[in-house]
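LAB NOTEBOOK - FOLDING QUEUE
OPERATOR: T.R.
BATCH SIZE: 2
PURPOSE: Compare the predicted structure-token outputs for two unrelated chains run back to back under identical settings.
PRIORITY: normal
REVIEWER: second-year student, initials M.K.

ITEM 1
FIELD SEQUENCE / FIELD STRUCTURE:
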Amino acid sequence: MAVAHTPWQQLPAEVHIAVEKRLGSAYTVQTSDAGANNGTNATLTLTDSTRLFIKGQFGRAPREFLDPVADPQDGSDWWGADWGPVDQLNEEARINPYLPAASPRVLWREEVADWHLVAFEWIDGRHADYRPGSPDIAATAQALADLGACRIPPIPLPTARDRWGYYCDRDVRHLLDGGGTLLHTDPAEVNVLVDAHARAHLVDWAWPAVGPGWINPALWGLRLVAAGHDFADAAAWASEIPAWAEATPGAVKAFTRAEARRWTDEADRGTYGADSLVDDVLAWADFWV
């Protein structure tokens, strides 16, 4: 379900005071409807024209550390039953120092009046356009290739099996094992910003994982299908990512089936945007059968 959104102007006065104190400057606010899972978000412009992007969540303090709850093949959840939006925001901040250079860096964090805020570098860009013929496709391919070259962060992270094992047939779960690549897990158009120099920036790292590098382009491929590409074209673009060379037909088949089941589950739960994606992800999975 989508997180209840609170416009920046409606946040408690204590939040506004703390942010202004942190910035050492008055600021103007530009709000956005982007980010269905943000409790609040805004672009702040300081008196010297410096800009930054802030997102926040309301509630309890985030979990101090992460550790697998149990082997996901028995149906348990790596994240735990109490995992929530505050923890997702904490993940973004936790993974941030280890991301590719193009991803905006965290500037500071603030906790006040039960609001947990994270301030990011401002990226002067727009959401990517994955429709056939868009130059943003090549830019995103480069961003995913750069991601594949990242070192694995020295912090606890879920694995591909943790993320998708529950939705995999038991006899093929091992195909998700191994690999030493940082996974974004949701390279949707809204999670990629393209700047005036045609550079793509991966944002919204609420669900990072570690696993085989070919998973990043496999996930991107289904987003290309959703944007109007035929299956062969989407697969061809996926093959532009070096890690795709490590994929086997059996592994891609097992993974795309698991992702299709996951999105069907999300649609049944009423997750924002899931209904519009289910048919495409099912078709992408069928392409590999």
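ITEM 2
FIELD SEQUENCE / FIELD STRUCTURE:
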Amino acid sequence: MDKEAAQGVNIFEYDDYRRYLNDKYEELKNTTKGFSYRAFAKKAGLSSWNYFLLVKKGQRNLSLKTIKKFAEALDLPEREAEYFESLVMMNQAQNFTQRDYYYKELLKIATRRGFQQLEAAQYAYYSHWYIPVIREMAELKDFRADPDWIARHVSPAITKREASEALETLKMLGMLTAEGGTLAKTEKSLSTGHEIRNLLVKNFHFKMIELGYEAIERYASDQREIGSLTLSLTSDQVAELKQRIFRFRQELLETFTTDLATDDIFQFNMQLFPVTRLDRRKKTEEPQ
């Protein structure tokens, strides 16, 4: 662990650079004589004395040039400066692909310093469709905690190495535990910051929708159920439909969750999205 990180605000624990800057400012204000927004702006070579404040409050973004100025003025060591740059780029990314790329960069940087192994495992869980599948497989009647057996029974097929790494990920996350000479599923859920949770959940949805697309050709009709509806709806009806979908998902969980050993694993996807562009449509909260 870096000495700076151990003694003060640890940047590797943050998934929001504005929150980091807020905490870092408070730390420097309390520990550095004469520190202020104006002093920081002078040290960083910024033309506006309150630029730090505006960025911290979300009223300004950082460019690559100002990212480097901030890192230098904060006296960040090389690895922390690298992490800070990727963190800013992830938070300011305009689409999922960019956010996903910079999050993976954050994990690479942090993991090299011994941080965030748990976060790397969480990313793996949501990014590899077969890991949650293997977790559910632990409830099968004839389940064997053997990578070779698992690899042969997952569909579409995965490698023995992928199965082995998936088991290690699930054990690290506490989602599988040793029991009676095998591995058993636990009820443990994942907990992450809001920014990262949104990214990981979207990653998971991408993978599962892709599997649904492939299932049309992969399985005969008696092994799957795929259908769709195109609806013309009012705004109130959209809200009602989303609530009904949510309640239906909850009902499925309550009805089909069982303590009994099961026979097979299925993936159930539901999607509702607009297929027209209307200026009057109100912007909704960030999707998950």
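REVIEWER COMMENT (ITEM 2): Residues 152 and 158 are 7 Å apart (CA to CA).
FOLLOW-UP: none requested
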